[in-house]
């Protein structure tokens, strides 16, 4: 055994008495837990919303048969799926930070997570929550920009009401 | 003092957190030898292992308010040592000695009985010759007497993986160490 280890108790206790090392306050850990949880929730919410936004963007081009694949590819907002993937990765990373994550089958957690986001995005889009968001939500600017772009490029509308109409046209 | 010795780790931690900082010395005394053996099995160097243990105990004290007293303190402190040791392994990756040539220094505190001590030494030597992902759960299970559940907590891997790794480690030990 090294001499250092024999003195380890004295070394550490001296540092404690001299206040060279101090315990972090409980509030620090409470704040950390809250922020981690908020980060997890916001990354899930952002991912759900971005799935909804992707569906919205695809529908705003009109009926499937009426436009070509290259048109979709050229006008598709690729930053949205990239952001969604980043959101997913961030969410999964945060999830792994939680104590319980290693206790369960992580593949199932990821599959459940992705399914929840896709289904959540589809439901939000279907019930028309996007309508509310486009009028007064935080992504109002993005949606408006999309509408303007579509108006100038193809003359097609992607107004909230137009989402449904475009599908029917 | 005798009352203190009867207290569980978690009860001592609760007292340290509330007002009695001196009780942290009891925690250090309880764990320093066990942690040193564990750290030595990970970093293969006594001095580095001492540093790992000391740094881990300091970190544990600093973050003591983050410990959930409903959980096992031993799993928590072993986890901190594991993380510290992994940092050291990454830092000195190229310098870690070749395992077969490593001359193990015996530790008188490991086992009182000579036969047991010899067996322990042999096992520890063999442990060094198998990959870390297998040797670590095996040493936790047999040398530190940890349950699968505790090993799962320390290594942050599912219990099924713990069982698989221990089983593979035993096969590797049989294959490698019975030759010697």
Could you state the order of secondary-structure elements of chain B as H and E?
HHHHHHHHH
CATH class of the largest domain in chain B: Mainly Alpha
Summed over residues and divided by their number, the pLDDT of chain B gives a mean of 83
Number of helices of chain A: 9
| Largest interface pair | A-B, 25 and 31 residues
Largest sheet of chain A: none
Q: How many whole angstroms does the radius of gyration of chain A measure?
A: 25 Å
Backbone structural class of chain B: mainly alpha
Q: Which CATH-level-2 architecture of the largest domain in chain B?
A: Orthogonal Bundle
Q: Which range best describes the helical content of chain A: under 10%, 10-25%, 25-40%, 40-55%, 55-70% or over 70%?
A: over 70%
Named CATH topology of the largest domain in chain B = Rna Polymerase Sigma Factor, Chain: A
Could you tell me how far the N terminus lies from the C terminus of chain B, measured between alpha carbons in angstroms?
47 Å
Total separate domains of chain A: 1
Terminal residue distance of chain A: 81 Å
Query: CATH homologous superfamily of the largest domain in chain B, by name?
Result: RNA polymerase sigma factor, region 2, helix turn helix motif
What does this structure look like?
The complex is a heterodimer of chains A (169) and B (180). Helix content of chain A is 75%, strand content 0%. Chain A is an all-alpha fold. Chain A has one domain. Chain A is elongated. With 180 residues, chain B is mainly α. Chain B folds into 2 domains: 96 residues, Rna Polymerase Sigma Factor, Chain: A (Orthogonal Bundle), CATH 1.10.1740; 84 residues, Winged helix-like DNA-binding domain superfamily/Winged helix DNA-binding domain (Arc Repressor Mutant, subunit A, Orthogonal Bundle), CATH 1.10.10.10. Chain B is built from 9 helices and no strands. The longest helix of chain B is centred in the first third of the chain and has 20 residues. About 7% of the residues of chain B have low confidence.
């Amino acid at each position: 055994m090294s001499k250092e280890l024999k003195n380890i108790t004295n070394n550490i206790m001296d540092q404690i008495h001299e206040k060279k090392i101090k315990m972090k306050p409980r509030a620090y850990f409470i704040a950390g837990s809250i922020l981690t949880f908020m980060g997890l929730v916001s990354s899930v919410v952002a991912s759900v919303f971005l799935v909804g936004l992707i569906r919205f963007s695809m529908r705003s081009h009109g009926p499937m048969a009426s436009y070509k694949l290259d048109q979709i590819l050229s006008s598709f907002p690729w930053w949205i799926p990239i952001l969604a993937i980043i959101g997913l990765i961030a969410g999964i990373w945060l999830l792994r930070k939680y104590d319980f994550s290693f206790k369960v089958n992580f593949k199932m957690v990821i599959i459940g997570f992705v399914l929840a986001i896709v289904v959540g995005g589809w439901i939000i889009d279907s019930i028309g929550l996007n309508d509310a968001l486009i009028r007064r939500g935080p992504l109002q600017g993005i949606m408006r920009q999309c509408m303007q772009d579509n108006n100038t490029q193809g003359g097609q509308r992607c107004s909230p009401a137009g989402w449904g109409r475009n599908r029917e046209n | 003092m005798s009352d203190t010795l009867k207290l569980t780790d978690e009860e001592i931690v609760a007292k340290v957190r509330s007002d009695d900082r001196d009780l942290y010395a009891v925690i250090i005394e309880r764990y320093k030898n066990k942690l040193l053996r564990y750290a030595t099995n990970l970093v293969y160097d006594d001095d580095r292992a001492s540093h790992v243990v000391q740094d881990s105990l300091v970190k544990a004290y600093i973050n003591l308010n983050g410990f959930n007293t409903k959980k096992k303190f031993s799993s928590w402190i072993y986890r901190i040592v594991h993380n510290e040791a992994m940092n050291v392994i990454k830092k000195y990756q190229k310098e870690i000695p070749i395992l077969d040539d490593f001359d193990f220094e015996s530790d008188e505190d490991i086992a009182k009985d000579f036969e047991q001590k010899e067996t322990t030494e042999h096992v520890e030597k063999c442990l060094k010759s198998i990959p870390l992902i297998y040797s670590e759960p095996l040493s936790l299970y047999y040398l530190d007497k940890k349950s699968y559940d505790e090993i799962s907590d320390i290594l942050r891997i599912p219990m099924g993986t713990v069982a698989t790794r221990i089983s593979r480690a035993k096969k590797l030990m049989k294959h490698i160490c019975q030759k010697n």
